[in-house]
UniProtKB/TrEMBL annotation:
Keyword check for Membrane: yes
Compartment list: Membrane
Keyword terms: Membrane, Transmembrane, Transmembrane helix
InterPro entries: RTA1
Membrane topology: Multi-pass membrane protein
Membrane-crossing segments per the record: 13-35, 42-63, 135-157, 172-193
Name used for this protein in its record: Uncharacterized protein
Record organism: Suillus discolor
Pfam annotation, one family: RTA1
Predominant location: membrane
Keyword rRNA processing annotated: no
GO annotations of cellular component type: membrane
Amino acid sequence: MVFEILRYNPDKAIAAVAGGSYFIASLCLFVRLFMNKTWWGLCLPVASTWMSIGFFMRILMAINPSSLPIFMVQQFLTLLPPAAYLAFNYILYGRFVAICIDRCSSWIKPEKVARYVVISGVGGGLEVSTKFEKLGANILLSGLVIQTLSFAIYRVIEFAQGNGGYLVTHEIYFYLLNSLPLLIGICTYIIYWPTKYLEASLRPTK
């Protein structure tokens, strides 16, 4: 069944490496979350954990290629997390606008940006003119862009091509164009956790 749908047999070794990488990233993100008590960002490490489990489920899927429940759970756990990553980004966007810039710079109230984006499923068309003084903030923004582009460039094309499309039938693209860029994006937050820059902006400048 798996081969009939995907046109390939999942590679167990690559799935194990991907699952392990996301698991380590999840642990680091949870540490960052609890150290800074930023409960609003809980969706990021939780989604990363789901992604990790999803990759390990691909191993089970390779061992049991006729199991529909395993296939469905694996699909769910690898398709849903990127949306949660984007939700985290838009929550962060709202906080950056409200704390670091000016609420008037956003067409939508910062507190409602994430809600509207998640409900509508439409990417943001919002632009804010700002200049970050710290290199870390620029790298943080780059991580956000990587996640967004990865989700749009790969997933949109994948579904547009259908079940027999080139991207869908070649496993390497699932890892190179989707899983790896997303991993790089969320790992950016391990090094540059947003709270550092949000709190810095509240301190009076000398």
